């Protein structure tokens, strides 16, 4: 006989507790712990009969794989992030805030693949088939042979999928609406989301289909977040951008079959998501030319150079502890650049609030942005605007010297392509041939740069 056991599970990260508490110790979120019941076998595992096990065949590493292992979606920005298409038998989780455009992106790629002759199944647990169809019509995709269903019972979905020719791609929108018979908890709880994901992952491995699970990022812990399945799947992509702006950035957080540093850039339009193949032009399209406090950073996202504007505001403060606020960059990195400016360049910022923003909603992770940040800060403090046709890149060391960064050639080439005339940054002799005719100021110390700006 099965006995019911009650446990308290964090709906954000899946940590299990014996009793309820307000804050999850594992992930630090508040009010995310909910009561869940699970049926457990009443026979202790030590008394259960041991299974003899089934003998299976071992295979060689160099086996015949038959069909192409990857399914190329034909949406270039999506393929860039997955590492060249959806891998056969793999499971990908697409996470993001509600309303960011996950369903739109997926219906667009499903339609493109169905048009290429693949069997594609789209299961929506959130919208009725009529709603999905309506959206497809609006996007002029209604003629694509995508097979639709509005279902939430995992066992029924699997039975349907195993019937007929194996689909090449199955989209489950969203994993939080799915429920499986094998688990007793309510849909949307950690146990259900995990149980459903497990069943779908087993299906992918068995059938060779690629499965995409949509996961809503939740702030309030009402339903389980995508984090509880992140470690179970092969790849995790996150779709970001704020609802007020039209850019959307697709980023790989985990990828067993590809890089994790590439980003895909899209623009939400009245006709769905449009690929942005030249993101630099988009990020620089609304520049405040000639305003003090802005500098253009020649950055890299994976293998692609991306130019983006760094905005700084340095203002006198009356607070005892001045404010440091950063959007799109690392706060610790900003503190370091501020300390180097104070210690080695004579720039006094202790009596000033500092605000830093990366334009266009991009999140920069490279230390190569140090020099552009420093230039924007000094420009804002002194009121001297930087040359509108210049870009910056370079890592600042604690001693105030400027260190070379990777891919200087690619950064310079992108800047030249967008009409920039000059660059400040360390360029090794081997890369200078690729500079595209830019005037290069090979600064080697931050103090020199500060003196040039202030002069
Ligand atoms: P959706 O794909 O439903 O988001 P998610 O699945 O991540 O919750 O996108 C919904 C938003 O996108 C909604 O605010 C309307 C907007 N949108 C457009 O601007 N243009 C379009 O062509 C479509 C289909 C949606
Ligand atoms: Mg949706």
From TrEMBL:
A motif (RadA KNRFG motif) lies at residues 254-258. Residues 67-217 form the RecA family profile domain. Keywords: ATP-binding, DNA damage, DNA repair, DNA-binding, Hydrolase, Metal-binding, Nucleotide-binding, Stress response, Zinc, Zinc-finger. SUPFAM superfamilies: P-loop containing nucleoside triphosphate hydrolases, Ribosomal protein S5 domain 2-like. ATP binds at residues 96-103. Belongs to the RecA family. RadA subfamily. DNA-dependent ATPase involved in processing of recombination intermediates, plays a role in repairing DNA breaks. Stimulates the branch migration of RecA-mediated strand transfer reactions, allowing the 3' invading strand to extend heteroduplex DNA faster. Binds ssDNA in the presence of ADP but not other nucleotides, has ATPase activity that is stimulated by ssDNA and various branched DNA structures, but inhibited by SSB. Does not have RecA's homology-searching function. The middle region has homology to RecA with ATPase motifs including the RadA KNRFG motif, while the C-terminus is homologous to Lon protease. This is DNA repair protein RadA. The gene is radA.
């Amino acid at each position: 006989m099965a006995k019911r056991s009650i446990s308290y599970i964090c709906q954000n990260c899946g940590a299990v507790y014996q009793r309820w508490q307000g804050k999850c110790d594992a992930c630090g979120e508040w009010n995310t712990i909910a009561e869940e019941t699970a049926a457990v076998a009443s026979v202790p595992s030590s008394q259960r009969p041991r299974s003899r096990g089934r003998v299976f065949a071992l295979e060689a590493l160099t086996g015949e794989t038959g069909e192409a292992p990857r399914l190329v979606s034909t949406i270039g920005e999506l393929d860039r992030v997955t590492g060249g298409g959806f891998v056969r038998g793999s499971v990908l989780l697409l996470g993001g805030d509600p309303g960011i455009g996950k369903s739109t992106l997926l219906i667009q790629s499903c339609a493109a693949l169905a048009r290429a002759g693949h069997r594609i199944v789209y299961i929506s647990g959130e919208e009725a088939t009529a709603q999905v169809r309506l959206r497809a019509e609006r996007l002029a995709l209604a003629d694509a042979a995508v097979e639709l269903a509005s279902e939430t019972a995992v066992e029924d979905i699997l039975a349907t999928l195993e019937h007929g020719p194996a689909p090449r791609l199955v989209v489950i929108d969203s994993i939080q609406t799915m429920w499986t018979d094998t688990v007793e908890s309510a849909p949307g709880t950690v146990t259900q989301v995990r149980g459903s994901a497990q069943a779908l992952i087993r299906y992918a491995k068995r059938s060779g289909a690629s499965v995409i699970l949509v996961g809503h990022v939740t702030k309030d812990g009402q339903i389980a977040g995508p984090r509880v399945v992140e470690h179970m799947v092969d790849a995790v992509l996150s779709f970001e951008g704020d609802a007020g702006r039209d850019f959307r950035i697709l980023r790989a957080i985990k990828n067993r079959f590809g890089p994790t540093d590439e980003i895909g850039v899209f623009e939400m339009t009245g006709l769905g998501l449009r690929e942005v193949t030249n993101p630099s032009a988009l990020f620089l399209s609304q520049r405040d030319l000639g305003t003090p406090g802005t500098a253009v950073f020649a950055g890299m996202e994976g293998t692609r150079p991306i130019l983006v504007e760094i905005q700084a505001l340095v203002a006198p403060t009356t607070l005892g502890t001045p404010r440091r606020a950063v959007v799109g960059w690392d706060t610790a990195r900003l503190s370091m650049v501020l300390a180097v400016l104070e210690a080695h360049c004579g720039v006094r910022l202790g009596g000033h609030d500092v605000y830093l923003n990366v334009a266009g909603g991009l999140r920069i992770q490279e230390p190569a942005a140090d020099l552009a940040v420093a230039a924007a800060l000094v420009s804002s403090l002194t009121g001297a605007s930087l040359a509108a046709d210049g870009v910056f890149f370079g890592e600042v060391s604690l001693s105030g010297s400027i260190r070379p960064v990777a891919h200087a050639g690619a950064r310079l080439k992108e800047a030249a392509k967008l009409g920039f005339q000059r660059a400040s940054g360390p360029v090794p002799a081997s890369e200078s041939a690729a500079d595209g005719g830019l005037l290069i100021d090979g600064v080697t110390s931050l103090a020199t740069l500060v003196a040039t700006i202030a002069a």
